[in-house]
Every structure is written in structure tokens, then in C-alpha cells.
Amino acid sequence: QYRAAALAGLGTQLFWGLIRVMVFEAFYRSAAAPQPMSLQDTVTYLWLTQAMLHLIPFRVDAELAAMVRDGTVVYELARPMDLYWAWYARAIAMRTAPTILRALPMFAIALPFLGMRLPPTGWSFAAFVVSIGGAVLLTSAVTSLANISLFWTLSGQGVSNLLQVVVMFLAGMYVPLPLLPDWAQGVLTVLPFRGIMDVPFRLWSGDIPPAEAPLLVVQQLAWSAAFILLGRWMLGRGTRRLVLQGG
């Protein structure tokens, strides 16, 4: 079942990736004004978004949501461990395991056959690897925050729907962020979500020079720390006075 699901997911991502590439190729061919990214960089960006879709924190942890609904979350609270870091570790697993499983075969197909290109220099690849590490920390902190909200929302469906729309758009999943209007660039630069996809993907393509990577990674880590602190504070509030249901 796992192998079948992985193959089905790969096929789905390839299908949607081809559609998106065709849409953007039509956009570039019909555009008269110069664009902030070349078509080749944009195609590479699009295949990276397909390969690393699961980096996006697009839903709460289904197992934790079930625990909150039936009351078995009490066992999590009774264990002699730091609950936040345990859930944060779960979030890292949720973001990395499916991404690795999907990304490697996607690269094997998209690089030689579908217009995706390798980083222009070794420094660009190194900056990408470091930035992806920062992206994992950041997206896991956002996922943990969404999971902690279950203490108030119970179902988590509303939070999941909100994450899908807001984070995917602001991270660059729908449209590469440099292609958005100039008036939005200042806000997008300050927000944390570009660190999940836009920053590492543009470092891969060389659209962002490797020399700018240290400052961008620091920004990723700063936002990760902010979300972690907020999550720990919310978890403390949520567990201080908790009414369990189910049983």
C-alpha cells in the first residue's frame, strides 16, 4: 500500500507539474515586458515545488486530532517527556519523510527529461541544502503551532483549510513569489513563509546569489524560534486548564 501510494503520488505530481509548466510557458511567450525570473529558472522552481510539496504545513496531524477528539491525548500529557518537543519531532517526520520519498524519483525524471536544471554552482547547491534545513525547522514549527491549536478547535479542519490557502500562496507554491506584483514584494520579504519554499528554491536556481544565503538562513531560524516560543506558550495555556472528552 505504501509503494502504491508513493507511485500514485508521484504520478499526480508529474501530471500537475506538466500542466503548470505549460501554463507558465504560455505566460512567458505572451508577455511583452521582461520578467524577474527566466523561463528556465521558473520551470526549475515549479518542479521543485512539485517535488517538495510536503514541506508545506497544509494540515494538522491526523493522529493528534483523533487523540484530542476521543480523549486519548491524556496519555500524551501523562508521559514523562516534554510534550512540545515530542510533537515537534513528529512534525519534522511528517514534513521530511514524505518529501524525501517523493523528491528523489521526481528529480530523477524532471532533471533529464522535463526541463529542470541543476544548480549553476556548487555554492548554490550548498546554500540550497542549508536553506532546506532551515525550511524544515520553520515548517515544523508552523505545523506544531497548528497541532497545538487542536486544544481549542478540536477538529482542526478549519486550521487545515486556512493553512492550505495562506501558506501555500505566501510560500510560492502557486506562483513563484518574484512574479507577484512589485507592491507585494516588501511584505512577502518580511513574512516567514517565503523561507519554506521560495528562498531555498531560488538559491537552487541561482536567482538568489549564494552570498545572500547566510542572512536568509538567519531569517528562517529567527522565525522558527518565534513560532517555537509561541507554540510552547500556547501549549502551556492549553494544558493548564484542559477538559477531556471521549473515553
Your description of this structure?
The chain has 247 residues and is mostly helical. Helices cover 72% and strands 0% of the residues. The protein is built from eleven helices and no strands. Helix 1 packs across helix 5 (83-113), helix 2 (39-51) crosses helix 5 and helix 6 (122-148) runs parallel beside helix 11. The radius of gyration is 19 Å and the shape is globular. The chain starts with a helix and ends in a 7-residue tail after the last helix. The mean pLDDT is 89.
End-to-end Cα distance: 31 Å
> Per the principal axes of the C-alpha atoms, what is the gross shape?
globular
Helices, by number, come to 11
Q: What's the Cα radius of gyration? A: 19 Å
Total beta strand runs: 0
Structural class: mainly alpha
Helix content: over 70%
SSE sequence, one letter per element? HHHHHHHHHHH
Q: Major sheet: size, sense and barrel closure?
A: none
How would you state the average pLDDT, rounded?
Answer: 89
Percent of sequence in beta strands = under 5%
The residue ranges in which pLDDT falls below 50 over 5 or more consecutive positions are: none
